[in-house]
Design goal:
The protein has 275 residues and is of the alpha+beta class. 48% of the residues lie in helices and 12% in strands. Helix 3 packs across helix 5.
């Protein structure tokens, strides 16, 4: 895949950061652009620093918000070195700081600082593989019709749904949104659960990272299949309010309070988990 990455980078006119032998950056992932010229490189003049910064940004992009300590462990760098790179990424607007949310008692001490990718950070990465996926779905739609794309999206989400169902099937309805958020976060979606601010109550499931946002912008069937799966997993109606794919900062799903839902045989037939 290295030759493909080089070709893509050359065509885009970008100098790409390759990290041979680095276990934290899989060899078959799309290449990372060096942080834009005039920003990070101007601080040190060292290409190696720029490449390390790109590796840190990619980890945050792919796995969701992370702490400096977590990044240090993944990259095998000292916490001080990681914090230095994070400070530069913050100054360049590539990442932002968030306060960690926890549904368990953290005990005393300051809340952990999470570093999340910004829109500017996302745009610093090549989207060559997104373009390839989009082309493949376009080909599928032209040859087999739009319904084939929806079927493909449901098939793609089915394995994830099966795994989550095993986690959620024994949980009470009132706990499922929180547990689903934790499961999504473990898969890199950086999800959180909170009470809905609306008068109707319920909860909100937020995903701060979407690995297929650029593809879903053209093929919303991917988002629709995911939303349908959430409804089945949670055993209650859900509604997608915002998506990263449509330019929102976060994917937000409203989850109807189970207490407002009367028993509906159609829900069980659709594959929802029973209470």
């Amino acid at each position: 895949m290295g030759h493909v990455d080089d070709a893509m980078g050359t065509a885009a006119g970008a100098r790409l950061s390759h990290v041979p032998g680095n276990p934290a950056v899989p060899a078959n992932t799309a290449p990372v652009k060096d942080i834009p010229a005039g920003a990070a490189q101007s601080r040190t003049g060292l290409g190696s620093d720029s490449r390390t910064r790109g590796r840190i940004a990619r980890l945050i992009l792919e796995n969701g918000p992370a702490t400096a300590a977590g990044l240090s462990a993944r990259l095998g760098l000292t916490p001080a070195a990681v914090r230095r790179h994070l400070d530069n990424l913050l100054a360049d607007g590539m990442v932002e700081v968030r306060t960690a949310r926890s549904y368990q008692s953290r005990g005393r001490g300051r809340p952990a600082r999470l570093f999340a990718i910004t829109d500017a950070g996302r745009s610093a990465f090549e989207h060559a593989y997104d373009d390839l996926a989009t082309s493949a779905l376009r080909f599928l739609a032209e040859r087999a019709g739009p319904g084939a794309v929806a079927e493909f999206a449901r098939q793609q989400i089915s394995e994830l749904e099966r795994r989550y169902q095993q986690t959620l099937e024994s949980a009470p309805l009132s706990e499922r949104v929180r547990i689903l958020a934790e499961a999504l976060s473990a898969d890199g979606y950086a999800a959180s659960a909170s009470g809905s601010p609306g008068a109707g109550g319920g909860e909100q499931l937020c995903q701060h990272h979407c690995p297929v946002a650029h593809v879903a912008a053209k093929y919303p069937q991917l988002c629709e299949a995911e939303t349908e799966a959430f409804g089945r997993l949670l055993g209650t109606p859900v509604q997608r309010l915002a998506t990263i794919a449509h330019g929102d900062g976060v994917c937000t799903t409203h989850v109807t309070a189970p207490s407002l839902v009367h028993h509906n045989p159609a829900t069980s037939e659709a594959g929802g988990i029973s209470a």
